[in-house]
Here is the input.
Amino acid sequence: MRAKDRVTAVLCVNADGSHKLLIAIIGKAVRPLCFRPPAPGFPMPYFSQVNSWMDVPTMAHWFASVFVQEVRRVTTEPVFLIMDNAPSHGELKEDGVTIVCLPHNTTSMYQPLDVGIISAVKRRYNGRLLRRVLRRLNAQTAADCGTGLPSSPATDQHSPAPPVDDPSALGGPSCTPRSARSPHLCGALCMAAAAASRRCAFQW
Here is the structure.
């Protein structure tokens, strides 16, 4: 996978989950095109790294510009930062912050974010991405066929999407010749809509 095809997300929360730092994103582009004016700026802390990975300089930058500033905004008490012992974390030092590294091969058992929080974030991200793709595909299908997936708050909200069992509801067999060039799109929309309906029940 090329560096342009991936990003790294950095998650950090306090022990009881009452304070969550903004998710930081590591990508390859120094200034992604999608966030250049007149588009809104990036809504999260963003760092550039040639492979879109966490490395020592990026970790030090995140630690100083995100973690320390956000922690000191809410408390002046001493704090612990618990993380795995990846070499890319380097040596971090700050008054009032104690770094605690977990032993080797224990992250999946003892690090709370790895135990379930990161997977939950991925599921919610995938659900939102799927709904966005469905909206775009449905808009294109409607433009080509004069029909589309019935409008429902499920495409934006958390309620289950209506079941779609008939491909013609998405412009299947009833498609005009213009859209018939991609008949697999109609079937894909049906499957995606059904998947979204099943997933919404437990994601939100």
